[in-house]
Amino acid sequence: MDAEFWDDMYGSRERLFSGNPNGVLVSEIADLPPGQALDVGCGEGGDALWLARRGWKVTAVDISRTALERAAAAGGDVAGRVAWMRADLAETPPPAAAFDLVSCQYFPLPRRPGHAALRALLDAVAPGGTLLFVGHDLADLPEQVANGLVPRDLYQPDEIAGQLRRGWSIEVDETRARTAPAPEGTRHVRDAVLRARRLPST
Ligand SMILES: C[S@@+](CC[C@H](N)C(=O)[O-])C[C@H]1O[C@@H](n2cnc3c(N)ncnc32)[C@H](O)[C@@H]1O
Question: Which protein residues are within 6 Å of ligand 1, measured from CB?
Fold first, then answer.
């Protein structure tokens, strides 16, 4: 699932996602005071735009140029509050300790020995900041999805919770029903949700 895969995927339809923010983002983050946010794998920008319209300054990163172009086109009203950036976050770490919120919504990050890319995402959360990592419940997914990808080979929220030991407070680690209908062509009915706070002194 490289840049070409995702550009082809977005290019295959006029619009891949609804444009609405993800339900878990809305329910978990609505009460947080705005600050600096990193939207990891922002896609067509529904989450980044929702955050920016609520006063957050957002760095929205995706590997797909097509998705980023659509996102930027939809966000003219908050152009000064969102920086759209093309990067492969499996290879390029975001700045450390820079964000009050790091939001990973259905971001497909392959598990790797040493966990460097995962650690870089966790390190991007500033002391006192929040990590929100949301995935599809594995029970809703086939063994293999597009391009031979095996969902079990991706980091799962509960697994990440297990890696967050000292320096973090786990606030939510659960599987729950989606609030929004499953995206077209999928059978996703439940979300796996991790919300964790990096303790201020770390
Ligand atoms: C399932 S989509 C989710 C998009 C968006 N977060 C949402 O919930 O609508 C996954 C997104 O991650 C992006 N992506 C996949 N691998 C990536 C990587 N290594 N670095 C940056 N973005 C990546 C894809 O281009 C795609 O937009």
Answer: 1, 6, 17, 22, 41-43, 46, 61-64, 67, 88-90, 105-108
The per-residue pLDDT for 202 is 55
Cα separation, 100 vs 125, whole angstroms: 6
In whole angstroms, give the CA distance from residue 73 to residue 88: 21
CA–CA distance, 190 with 65 (Å, rounded to integer): 29
Report which DSSP code applies to 44. Answer: T
- Cα(169)–Cα(93) distance, rounded to whole angstroms? 23
Question: From CA 167, how far away is CA 57, in angstroms rounded?
Answer: 25
Q: Tokens representing 94?
A: 């975001």
pLDDT band of residue 197 (cuts 50, 70, 90) is very high
Q: What are the start-end ranges of the E strands in 30-161?
A: 36-40, 57-62, 82-86, 99-105, 125-136
Instruction: Answer yes or no: pTM beyond 0.90.
Output: yes
DSSP assignment letter at 149: -
What mean pLDDT is predicted for residues 68-86?
96
Q: How far apart are CA 159 and CA 179, in angstroms?
A: 23
What's the pLDDT band for 180 if we cut at 50, 70, 90? confident
**Which atom number of ligand 1 is nearest to the Cα of residue 92?**
20
Sequence length of the chain is 202
